Structure formats: structure tokens, C-alpha cells
Amino acid sequence: MTEILRTEGLSRYFGAVTAAEDINVTISEGEIVGVIGANGAGKTTFINMVTGYLPPSQGTIAFDGSPIKGMGPRKLMRKGLARSFQIPQLFLELPVIDNLAIALSAAEHRQFQMIRPVRTPERIKAADEILEQMNINHYRDEMVTAMPQGARKLLDIAIAMLGNPRMLLLDEPTSGVSMEEKYTLMDTVMEAVRQRGLTVLFVEHDMEIVQRYVSRILAFASGEVIKDGPVDEVLADAKVQELVTGKHHRTPEKEGDA
Amino acid sequence: MKLERTELSLIGVAIAIAILAQFSPNWLVFTLTLAISTALVVMGVVMLMRAGLVSFGQGLFYCLGGYAVGLGGRFLGITDALVLVGLGVVVTTVVAMILGLLMTRYREIFFAMLSLAFSMILYGILVKSHGLGSTDGFGVVDWTLLGFTPGDGQATTTALMLALVLALAIALFLNRYFKSSIGLACEAIRENEVRVEYMGISHRKVLYINYVLAAAVGSVGGSMTALAAGHVDPTMAYWTISGEFVFIAILGGTGHVAAPFIAALIFTLVRTYAVELAPNAWQMILGIVLLLIILFLPKGIWSLFTRKKGAAS
């Protein structure tokens, strides 16, 4: 498989505090990779560095073969690297349809148009399609403030996907979502991801979710990747059990086995 | 291009005002011209507010528009009102393009204070410029409009007609602008700059374009005030004038392109009658009006119309 993301010696320090240290990761196109770790393990710092939110203190990042270190979110988005957030970053006082229409106009490089309305028939059609795919079409004309947390997460991910990315980084897509909704939400997201053939890296605390949807895990502890490999291998690792999952972690059924 | 209902309404109201003005007393025509001119500057404040920025220095562009008209007539010998207004727009746009590079780096109180500082710098320069009449300012030359020289008693009505045409053109443009990609991007920036950047939109560029446009629109208001009043003075850049623009913007709300016009008219009338009825307490009356608006209509007078629409649907 073609390599899409590579980080070498990636580190981030906040004064004397080490948030991430010597992270060496290679992700291939089409992979679905889970990032696990306790709070403060460096997962979000890693995502933030890769997506240009936080400049690394050391190391290199390459996306699709070209260096991207130092690039801001805008340039990275144009290169095909998109992300969602642990707390959905949305335009709360705007209708859902406008949240999507703005994203679509930006994806078309038409964000500076002054006369043509942002809600063109083509954009409305595209917005309706993704709303339907994410099962949140009933919120179409509502303000984002009227949406529950799970729907907001889906809208946040939908917006990220509208930029036609090749790789999607999801920061805790199920946090703040009820147990009953988690699987429905992830099924919806993964179906959309599969249809677009995206590479996905997602941070998650829920091991059952991780096991169900990913083929590979990066386990973080104290800012370092302590284990990188197939799901069963990583979860069976003694150090991962001690520092991340807990020793009595059980192994539920994988997606498709149920 | 098909006209929307709002646009047809704006055109209808402008025609109605133009017809009524023919039968109205001079003082009312003059008051209307000032209200429309003020509304144009307020429109600039509203454009910034929609992007989450509050300017306490929009008087800078109002004053630049006014002084461009005054100086263009006095030193360049220009008498055509449209050319003078155009001169004001050019000068203001150039100044805004320079200031915008700095201003769009700031938000919240820092933006507000910096905008106030720039307008007060212009005020200070004008007050110290004895050649420009210092605190007294100076008179604007008798102007013409496309070769027509308004006779005695015609200048006020002609100024209103010109203000109406310019305000209508600007309102029609802004009605589209607010619903366009960049117009919505401004609102998106107010809501969440992080997401805007992750969509691939440069928030700085959007704010810069919006800032320069708001300044240009404000300068038209200043130019029209100068043409109607026949006089310019440094108080146009004074911070209390900028404060009035913010006051009117809050009064009207940012929800619709017509809101600043309604609010400016109400403000001008309330002030006129408040000064007449209570010469020593008119500011208090205005203050009470604003307090009531903030308490009962936090989204401005325009929210009365949207509430009605919401209730009907």
C-alpha cells in the first residue's frame, strides 16, 4: 500500500513539559488506525501537530511524500488532510445547511464570492446528500444549537469530509455521546469513510469502539508511542495493558463478527 | 438577474420616499438625507459586527468621506457631487487598505480601541490644521450633479435623491453580499475562527475585504452628509460620533440590510424631538431608549419583524 503519512522524531515540548517525544509513525493509504492512550498521553498533541494546529518542536512530517511541517490548517486542508474535533467546531448560530454551504464554497475555492448566494442549488444538493448519509437530514434547517451532541459530532465530521480529503483525523468522535448512540454514530461515519476510500486516524478511549473499527493501533503513553501494530497484538501487550487499557481488559467481538 | 422580495421592497420604499419628498417640508427632507447618510456609515458598523468586530472608530471613514468632498471642491476644483463622492471612496479605500493590514490582526476590545485610536488621530490632526479651519471646519463648495446645478431650495431635495440612489445601490449590493460566500464566511468567523481555517478559508483575508468594504460604505455616508450639510468639521471623526454609529447599529440589529436605515431614522427623529422637548436631558432619553432596546429586543428593532414572521409561520 502507498504511504500517505510519515512522522519522524516528532516531538513537542511546553517548557519543561514533554507532550510528545520522538513519534515515528507511517500510515498507508486506506488504513483505519486507532490512537489510544490515557489522558495526557500525547494523542491530541500528535493530531494537533499533524494537522497544523500546533507546531512541532522537533521532527518531520510528510504527507503524500512531501514535507508539511510548519504548514497551517488551510494549506493542509488543500493538500487533502482534514480533521474533526473532540469538541465539535461548528457555527452554532447558523443553520446546519449554511454550515455545510460555507464548507462547500471553500472546497470549490469560491469563498470570496460577493454576489452569488452561498446556497446554490448544487451546494444544497451536495449538502442534502451528506446530511442524509450521516442521518442528520432532519436538522437541515435548524440552528446547530438545536442539535444533540451526537448529531453535532456527525456534522463536524461531515464538514471535514466536504473538503474532499484523502486522510481524515478524528479526535474522539464518540466522546460525550451516549453508549446507545456510539455504535450507530461510528457505523455511519465508517460507512461514509469507506465510500470515499479515506485513510482514517482516530483517537478513542473506548476500547470496544477501537477493536470494532480499526485494523491497527498506536498506543501512546507519556508522549511516546509505546506500541504500534495489529489490534490483538497491541491490546495483548503487557505495557499497553499496564499504562493504557488496564490489565483486565476483555476482548469483545470485532465488527462483522456480531 | 432576478430580483428578490427584499430587493423589490427596497426599491419600492426608495421610490415612495422620492415621491413623498416632493411634497415634504425642507426640514424633513434634510432630516431624511442625514438619516440615510448616517445609515450608510452604520451599515459599515453592521458589516463588522456580523464578523464579530465592534468598531468605535467608524467616524474615521465618515470623516474621510466628508473631508474628501470638502477638499476636493476647495483644492481640486471638483464640483460634481458624484465625482466628489467617488473621490471620498477612493481616499477611504486606500486608507482602509493600509489600516486593515493591522486591524484584522485584532479582535474584541483591542479592535474596538485601536479603531477608536485611529479615528482620534485623524481628529487630532484636523483640530491642529488651521488651514482647514481647525475645530470650526470649513464649508463645502456649491456642487452640481451630472451637469445639473440645483437652484435655490433645490439642493436639499437633490441631495436626498442622490443619497437615495446611492443608498439603494449599496443596500442592494449588501443584501446579496450578506448571503454570499464571503458574507456567510464573516458570520462563520464570528462563530468559530478555528473551523473556518480548517475549511481552507483565510479568516484574515475575509476580514480584510470586509473591513475595506465597510470603510468604503462609511465614506459614502460621510460624503453625503458633507454635501447635504454643506460643511465639514473634525467632530466627524470624534469618538462620540463613532459611538452613535454603534448605538444605531445595536438599535437596528444586524439581521437585515434595512435595519440600519430604520434605526437611523428612529435615532434621528428621537434625537431631534428629545433635543426639542428636553434640551438638557436628551442624552438621557437616548440612553433610556437604548437600555429598553437591549432589555427587550437584544437583537435590535429588526427582530420585531422576524418575531412576527416566526409567529405567523
Please give a structural write-up.
Chain A: GO terms for molecular function: ATP binding. The complex is a heterodimer of chains A (258) and B (313). Chain A has helices spanning 43-50, 73-79, 96-107, 121-133, 149-162, 179-196, 207-213, 231-236, 238-245, and strands at 3-14, 17-28, 32-37, 58-63, 66-67, 81-84, 167-171, 199-203, 216-221, 224-230. By secondary structure, chain A is an alpha/beta fold. Chain A has a 6-stranded mixed sheet with strand order 6-7-8-3-9-10, with helices on both faces. In chain A, strands 2-1-4-5 form a 4-stranded antiparallel sheet, covered by helices on one side. Chain A is globular and about 55 Å long. The model of chain A is unreliable at 254-258 (pLDDT under 50). Chain B has one domain (5-237). In chain B, strands 1-2 form a two-stranded antiparallel sheet. With 313 residues, chain B is mainly alpha-helical. The model of chain B has no long low-confidence stretch (mean pLDDT 91). Chain B contains 13 helices and 2 strands. In chain B, 74% of the residues lie in helices and 1% in strands. Chain A binds chain B through residues 51, 53, 72-74, 77-78, 82-83, 85, 89-94, 98, 101-103, 105-107, 110-119, 159-160, 163, and chain B through 173, 176-177, 179-185, 187-188, 191-192, 194-195, 197-202, 205-206, 209.
Entry keywords:
heterodimer, A: 258 residues, alpha/beta, Rossmann fold, 2 domains, four-stranded antiparallel β-sheet, 36% helix, disordered C terminus, B: mainly alpha, 74% helix, membrane (chain B), transmembrane helix (chain B), LivM-like (chain B)
